[in-house]
Amino acid sequence: MSRKRLEGKIALVTGAASGIGEEAVRLFAENGAFVVVADIQDELGHQVVASIGTDRVSYHHCDVRDEKQVELTVTYTLEKYGSLDILFSNAGIIGPMTGILELDVNGFDNTMATNVRGAAVAIKHSARAMVAKKIRGSIICTASVAASLGGTGPNAYTTSKHALAGLVHSACSELGAHGIRVNCISPFGVATPLSCRAFNLQPSEVEANSYAIANLKGIVLKARHIAEAALFLASDESVYISGHNLVVDGGFTVVDRSFSSK
């Protein structure tokens, strides 16, 4: 029988009712973890739990823009399973599809509140629980190739993901003293329900668009691939990795294709 890489671990996943978060929940549970599915999509969240069909997975409503809801979700996790070993702060939005010249200030603020402040309070309350119980935990955030490269997303989204990378570095610096690792994952374009709605495209169209500009050919990036990266960072296989941005982009952000295309 194959080894379960998260056997007995307790994980909290935000933005877990669909896309990358849902895939992470399934993969974490397959690898022996108890998982709290946190999201604002209640119906989808309950469907994820029902489809897995085990008491190792449960749902809790959580809007990460509301710190109290985040705190209550962490409390629920502790009361339900007795501990918290892993936070996968995955909740996020793409925000307004505008550039700086047409900046939508309200949309910008909402994007920052979700993608940055939401992650910050999730880290805050999860880390407090880990420190109180002396747990050498793992905290993972979903960033993006837009965290290190301009022009790959709209203004608010790109700004928020750059800020998120800074948050991860800062939290890593502080929480290392408590044995807590903090990392992020930066995916290339993935056909999630979020991205499909934002671009008004079908999953196959999003995948085709990403593949057309991808550096690495022969494989189509899926949400499962990002979940597998999260599994690695959640497991003891990455026990001395902290402050790292694991870029899952097939080399996209390190290759200047303008020369080869001429």
UniProtKB/TrEMBL annotation:
Residue ranges crossing the lipid bilayer per the database entry: none
Pfam families per record: adh_short_C2
InterPro entries per UniProt: NAD(P)-bd_dom_sf (IPR036291), SDR_fam (IPR002347)
Origin: domain of life: Eukaryota
Database matches in PANTHER family: SHORT-CHAIN DEHYDROGENASE REDUCTASE, SHORT-CHAIN DEHYDROGENASE REDUCTASE 3B
Family that this chain belongs to: Belongs to the short-chain dehydrogenases/reductases (SDR) family.
Name this protein carries in UniProt: Short-chain dehydrogenase/reductase
Species annotation: Quillaja saponaria (Soap bark tree)
